[in-house]
Design goal:
Helices cover 41% and strands 13% of the residues. It is α+β, with helices and mostly antiparallel strands and 425 residues long. This is Sugar ABC transporter substrate-binding protein.
């Protein structure tokens, strides 16, 4: 299961919620609206199901502030790319604004209008640096980040603060038990808590993002450096060896563990730590055995410092819309009222000030570590290639599954390099 699919399904569970101020369509089978007539104040906004809730408050506020009415058209993640490809290719779009997964920007860049006027110097200071960089394609800003996410550390605060655990850990490892900040500390703590039917951590062989975060922490661009495939360099091997080393402190069957499985392990009290998307902290069920017992910390750091892989979605305006003025008003509203997304079911934003507004409030303890991770010196977005998802699905995940099952890392990385070079030809 991809990162994007997982988060979108978690956000609203596939349920379509009506927006009071406008009609709303649900699912791929919903009738498509025609793009707004030129000069009207109604915009059709195409969103993946998980993003609808994030933008509901923005839509309501935009009606008040700018007189813009919003029709949301929702599609499941699996069908959205094909819908976008078809409409962009035809030049006849049924939407005025589209929320795009970050990995789709390279594929659709030629069909999108520049929105440079929204990226003022002040705005750029309030958006995480990696997202400002990703939104700029071929010298123009083509997408405004509506919300973003990254992995942080979730850990069992009750276990870490237990007096006996603290004393035993100090005696064995020679330093104080606390939330890990380095690879070595994460390894030690994982090993320490693997006992009595519990595991120190999980290893997610079914997804690529976590290993790629460790690649960044080791000081290398992930997989590609420009047009050059660098997946077989020393940093990628170091990160893979570290990742695989944790299998001895994780439940068996790591090759099949994905986001949903890892979240379930932690929420059921079977792992003492997990590296996980920050939004999950606020979604721990109240009847979970770990509810009220979880602490948060920034993503761990390698030799290059703290590094994570952001998971942003961008609001874009197609060149083919007849309603550019109202569409750009909506995108501006999404920037101006970005903090409203924090109150949604997914509970995320993209502006630094929006996260800071909530970080000291009870229940939002994940926001401080998320800010630190997104500002990490090694944090970077995925490579800007339209082949990225194909690389993930056909090369990276199968390689990781073989690695955590005991495959030789150097051989696997060399094979992956050849496969990726063939895909990019």
């Amino acid at each position: 299961m991809s990162t994007r699919k997982y988060i979108s399904r978690l956000a609203i569970g596939g349920i379509c919620t009506a927006v009071a101020l406008a009609a709303s369509a649900c699912g791929a089978g919903a009738p498509a609206s025609n793009s707004g007539t030129a000069g009207t104040n109604t915009v059709n906004v195409l969103v993946e199901a998980g993003g609808h809730a994030e933008l509901t408050g923005v839509a309501e506020q935009c009606k008040k502030d700018a007189g813009v009415d919003v029709n949301f058209v929702e599609l499941p993640y699996d069908g959205m790319f094909n819908r976008l490809s078809s409409e962009f290719s035809s030049g006849n779009v049924s939407f005025d604004v589209a929320a795009l997964d970050s990995v789709w920007l390279p594929s659709f860049k030629d069909a999108l209008q520049p929105i440079d006027e929204i990226f003022t110097d002040e705005a750029k200071k309030d958006i995480f640096p990696s997202l400002v960089k990703e939104a700029n394609v071929d010298g123009h800003f083509i997408g405004l980040p509506a919300w973003t996410n990254a992995e942080i550390i979730l850990y069992r605060k009750d276990l870490f603060e237990d007096a006996k655990n603290k004393a035993d850990f100090q005696a064995k490892y020679g330093y104080e038990l606390a939330a890990p900040t380095t690879w070595k500390q994460y390894q030690d703590i994982s090993e320490f808590f693997t006992k009595d039917g519990m595991y120190g951590t999980d290893v997610k062989g079914g997804v690529e993002t976590e290993w790629l975060a460790h690649v960044l922490q080791a000081g290398s661009p992930m997989v590609l450096d420009g047009d050059k495939v660098v997946i077989d360099n020393a940093a990628h091997k170091e990160a893979l060896d570290f990742y695989v080393s944790l299998t001895k402190s994780a439940p068996a069957g790591a090759a099949q563990v994905d986001w949903a499985a890892a979240q379930n392990l932690f929420n059921q009290g079977q792992t003492a730590m997990t590296r996980f998307w920050a939004h999950a902290y606020r979604q721990i069920p109240k009847d979970s055995p770990v509810a009220g017992k979880v602490g948060t910390a920034p993503m761990i750091a390698g030799s290059a410092g703290i590094g994570g892989v952001p998971g942003p979605w961008y609001l874009t305006v197609p060149k083919a819309t007849k309603n550019t003025e109202a569409a750009k008003k909506f995108v501006q509203c999404a920037y101006d009222h970005n903090s409203l997304g924090v109150e949604s079911s997914l509970g995320l934003a993209s502006r630094i000030s929006a996260f800071e507004k909530y970080q000291d409030k009870e229940g939002y303890e994940s926001f401080g570590p998320l800010i630190e991770t997104l500002n990490g010196e090694a944090t970077a977005t995925r490579p800007a290639t339209e082949k990225w998802q194909q690389i993930v699905d056909t090369v990276l995940v199968p390689m990781l599954q073989k690695a955590v099952a005991g495959g030789d890392s150097a051989t696997l990385l060399a094979d992956a390099k050849k496969q990726i070079e063939d895909l990019l030809k």
